[in-house]
Amino acid sequence: MNERSQVLALKYRPRRFEDLIGQETIAQTLSLALDSKRLSHAYLFSGLRGSGKTSTARIFAKALMCENGPTSHPCEQCEHCVTANEGRHMDIIEMDAASSRKIDDIRDLIEHTKYQPASAKFKIFIIDEVHMLTKEAFNALLKTLEEPPPFVKFILATTDPLKLPATILSRTQHFRFKKISNQDVSAHLRHILNLENITYEPEALQILARSGSGSLRDTLTLLDQAIIYSKHHVDVSTVTEMLGLIDPQFFESLFGVIFSKDRALLVNTLRELEAYEAEMVVDELTSWLKERLYDHDDSRFSPLLLERFFRILSEAKSLFAINAEGSFVLGLIFFKMIEALKVKEIDQMIESLEAQVARPDSVAYASAPAATAAPAVPTATAAPAAVNEEAPETPAAAEPEPVVAPAPDPALAKFEALCARIEDRSADLGKCFREQITFIAYGDDTLTWESCADDDCRAKLKHGFPVIKQLVREVFGFETKIKHNPCSQPAEEAVPKPEPVSGPVNVAGTVPTPESAPMPESAYGSGESVSPVEEMEERPAYMESYSAAEEAPQSASMTEEVETGSGSCVTGNCEPDLSTREIDGNAILDEPMIQKATELFEATKITIQNKV
C-alpha cells in the first residue's frame, strides 16, 4: 500500500516502546523484563480501545524475535525485525477471538504449540479480543496456557477483562492500559501535523482530543476527517461544524447574556441551540465550565458560582431520563443560572450582616432622643391622665426636633418594611400589627414600640410573636432586641374578675413585687390593658407565675407555650422559666466547651445564629 494513502492511525503506529503514548509505566516494565530476561509465558493487556494494546503486543513480540534479543531496543534491521514490522513473520501468529471463538479454533492453536518455531527463538501467539471466546474454548486453553512449551509465549488482549474467567487471569501477567490524557493526545496530534506540514489551531486539536475520549486511534481517525474537511487547515470553526459541536465563542456570548440577566436576549439565544442535541449541549457546557474553573483570568466564575452551575447541570441530566423536551430543559438550565447569580456568597453575607449590625451614626443619632424619651412613658402604676398633663410641659421633646427628625427616617422605613413582611406572612397578623403597634424609636440595637392591642389582636400577636421576632431580626439585624412600652392611651374600665370560690390560690397575688421592677397592675387584674408582646418579653421573672383563673387561652402545643411564654403555673413555688428568655450570644463564647473547640480547630471566626 502506498504510504501516502495510509490513514494516520496506521502510518504513525508505534514501533518502539519509546513511541507509546501515555503508557510509560507499561513500556518501562516490559523493557526491564526483556533486559533482565525475566519473562513470563503469558501476558494479558486490557484497556480502552485505541490505547495501544495490540501495538504493544507487536513491539514486545518483535523484541523477543530480534537476533540481538530478547532486548528492549530491537535493531530494526535484521530479518526478524523487518518481517515483524511488515506483519509477515511466520512465528508471530495473530488470532482474532471475535471470529475464531469456538473450541475447534482453540484446538488448532494448541496443536501449533507442539511444533518448534520455524526460524526464531520463540513462537508467539497474539489473541485479540480474547473475552469473546466461549466457555468451552477457555477451558480447553487453560492447561496449555498454564504450562506451555518453553519456546511458546501467549499475549492476550481485551477491552473487557471482567468477562474473563478467574482461571485465565490467574495464569497471566495483567497489564492495565490507562486512558490517554487529552494533553498527551493533543501533543501527539501537533507532532503528526508538523510532520505532515498541515497548519492548525491549538484549540481545534483540544476539541479533537476531547472528542476522542482517551482513544488515540479514534482521535487520529477524527483528525484524518478534519484535515479533509478543513482543506489542510485545521481550525476551530471547521472542527466544531464537522463534529456537530458548539463553538466556544458561542458560550462566551451566552454567559455574557446570563450575567447581564437579559431574559429577552436569552430567549433569542436559546432558539439558536434548537439545532443541536440537548444532551450534547449540556456535555459541552460542562466541559466549557470546567475550563473556566482552571482559568483564573475570568473573575466572574468563582468556585462557588461554578459549583452552583454544575449542580444545575447535574439536575438537568435527570430530566433527560424521563424524556423531557430538550429546549425546555436548556431554557430551565439557563434561567436557573440567572437565579443562581442572586445568591450571595458567604463573605458577602457576612459583610452584609456586619453592615446591618453596625448602624450608621446618623441613624444612631436620630434614635437617641427617642430612646431618652422612652423612660418618660409611665409605668402601669401611674395614672394615664398624668401622661397627658406632663406631655405639653416637657420642652425637651420640641427642642431637638429640627435635628432629630431626618427625612426620611431610615428606622421608620425599616419598620414599614417589617409591617409589609408580616402582612406577607399572615394577612390577619399583619393587620393587627400595623394597626395596634406604634413605632417609637430604634437605637443601640433596640427596637422600641408601643402596643394598644385589643383582646382579639392580642391573642393573634401572642400566637404569632415567634414569627414577628424572627422578621425583626431579619429586617433590623440579628442582634436587635425588642422593647415594649405599654399603651399610653387611656384604657376602658375593665370588669374585675370575681374571686374564685374554689380551686388554686391566686399565686400572682402572693408573690412579692421587687421595688426595682414595678409590676403592671394589669397583671393583677386592675383593668389596664398591657401589650401582649410586653407580657411575653419584658415582664419580670415573677410574672411567670400567675393565677390559673386569669390564665390566657392555652396555646395549641407545648412548643408554642415555650416560645411565647404563655405557660401556666398553678402552685405557689413555681420557678421562673428561663427557657423563654433571650440568651446573650456573646456569653456563649465564654463556655468551656466552645473555648476548647476554638482551640482544637484553630477557628479564626465564629458565627452565632439565632433560630426560632
The averaged pLDDT comes out at 76
Number of strands: 10
Oligomer: single chain
Distance between the termini: 82 Å
* Radius of gyration, taken over Cα atoms and rounded to an integer in Å: 42 Å
Helix content class = 40-55%
Largest sheet: 5 strands, parallel
The secondary-structure class comes to alpha/beta
Question: How much beta, percentage-wise?
Answer: 5-15%
Shape: elongated
Low-confidence stretches: 362-399, 493-580
Tally of separate helices: 29
Strand order of the largest sheet: 2-3-4-1-5
Which key phrases capture this entry?
49% helix, elongated, single chain, 612 residues, alpha/beta, five-stranded parallel β-sheet
How would you briefly describe this protein structure?
The protein is α/β, with parallel strands linked by helices and 612 residues long.
3D structure, described in words:
This protein has helices spanning 8-11, 24-35, 53-65, 79-85, 103-112, 135-146, 166-169, 182-196, 202-212, 216-229, 236-243, 248-260, 263-272, 278-294, 303-321, 326-340, 346-357, 361-373, 384-393, 401-404, 410-425, 427-436, 455-463, 465-476, 507-510, 532-537, 558-564, 585-588, 592-601, and strands spanning 42-47, 92-96, 123-128, 152-158, 173-177, 199-200, 233-234, 437-443, 446-451, 481-485. It has 612 residues and is of the alpha/beta class. The strands form three sheets. A five-stranded parallel beta sheet has the order 2-3-4-1-5, covered by helices on one side. The longest helix has 19 residues, at 303-321. The protein starts with 7 loop residues before the first helix and ends in an 11-residue tail after the last helix. Mean pLDDT is 76; it is low at 362-399 and 493-580.
